[in-house]
Amino acid sequence: MRVLLIDDEKTIRRGMELLFDQLEFDITIVGEARNGEEGLKKIELLQPDYAFIDVQMPIMDGIELVKNWKEKAISPCTKCIMLTAYSEFEYAQKSLRYGVHDYLLKPIDENILNELFYRLNEAEIQQEPIADTGDDIIQSYKQKRAISHPFIMDILYLVSKNYKRNLQLSEIARKLHVTPSYISSQFKKVTGDNFVTFLNYYRIEIAKSIIIENPHYKIGEIAYMVGFNNITYFNKVFKSITGTTPHLYLREKGIHN
Fold this sequence. Notes:
With 257 residues, this protein is of the alpha/beta class. The chain has two domains: 2-127, Response regulator (Rossmann fold), CATH 3.40.50; 134-252, Arc Repressor Mutant, subunit A, CATH 1.10.10.60. The chain has helices spanning 10-22, 36-46, 62-71, 89-92, 110-127, 134-145, 150-162, 169-176, 180-191, 195-213, 219-225, 231-242, 246-252, and strands at 2-6, 28-33, 50-54, 79-84, 102-105. Strand 3, helix 3 and strand 4 form a beta-alpha-beta unit. Helix 2 runs parallel beside helix 3 and helix 8 (169-176) crosses helix 9. The radius of gyration is 22 Å and the shape is elongated. The relative contact order is 0.09.
């Protein structure tokens, strides 16, 4: 994700940069601006995915920046996040009419920033349909292991509908009104795999289809889309299942990411 920081305070920009480094997303700061006028020019020049804009700035404040940005239809795909102090919040809400996506109150909290990117990514995923290969993956898995047990089929179905989230065995157990240990033992007995092995297999199969059908996504974005919060772990699991890394898989398929 390409981010532009627009804030007149250098300490805030440096603090945001440090926060981005600690998040679970692949974020690159492509530029910075110290006021709204400079920020407007850089939005047009750099076309970032996200612009984090302070409300109070010299020359041109954040509200005026967003107003000009939207009226001139500059970089329509860039999403705007306003940075505001609590005392400015009511004033900052005026920018809603210009299509601001969200607000962050200063001082910025790491957990809130992480949640913000989760929401924004989830919205993007829902807006852009991805080929639904889930049924094919389930059918292939069933056939290879000759699965006909209704209880196991229920587990496979629940994984296919919830794999994007931080899915836990305990959640599946609650939905099926059994204990996690019962699911673990039965799943292993029938399929030969443990639950996490299948969950990772399903996620990686979906990731492979996304790489082929939507090559414009970055590897870090794909990792999030299929339920991994850690890119390093995604790469490790991908290689353990496919025998290659996501980047090499892209090259093998003749795709440049």
